[in-house]
């Protein structure tokens, strides 16, 4: 599976035409995996699986004036924690086995003749 790159698009989401336009543009691009619309900050956060530069160019070309800016977010470095104590690997006492309860076979009820 390819690495996912996150991108931040600034669009006026308060405008219904701009919101509709960016929605149509993002739906046409097949390499976009996730879309998160933030109406308060007027941004759209997307995850792409291929080269983000190509996707950025497509969004700017197809979006026109509705797209205010497109940013490629830096990847978060993997944090390696060496100072953590190792997990306790002491053997836990095994749970006591509960004897299996057997159901008694019940006799078939005789059917009454009509």
Automatic annotation (TrEMBL):
Recorded GO MF terms: metal ion binding
Disordered, as annotated region: 81-114
Protein name: HMA domain-containing protein
Source organism: Eucalyptus grandis
Alphabetized InterPro entries for the sequence: HMA_dom_sf (IPR036163)
Phylogenetic classification of the source organism: Eukaryota, Viridiplantae, Streptophyta, Embryophyta, Tracheophyta
Biased composition (Basic residues): 103-114
């Amino acid at each position: 599976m390819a690495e996912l790159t996150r991108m931040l698009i600034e669009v006026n989401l308060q405008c219904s035409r701009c919101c509709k336009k960016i929605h149509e543009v993002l739906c046409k691009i097949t390499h976009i995996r996730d879309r998160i619309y933030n109406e308060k900050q007027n941004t759209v956060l997307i995850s792409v699986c291929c080269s983000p530069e190509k996707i950025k160019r497509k969004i700017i070309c197809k979006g026109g004036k509705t797209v205010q800016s497109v940013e490629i977010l830096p990847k978060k470095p993997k944090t390696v924690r060496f100072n953590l104590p190792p997990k306790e690997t002491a053997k836990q006492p095994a749970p006591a086995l509960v004897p299996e309860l057997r159901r008694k076979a019940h006799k078939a009820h005789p059917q009454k003749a009509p």
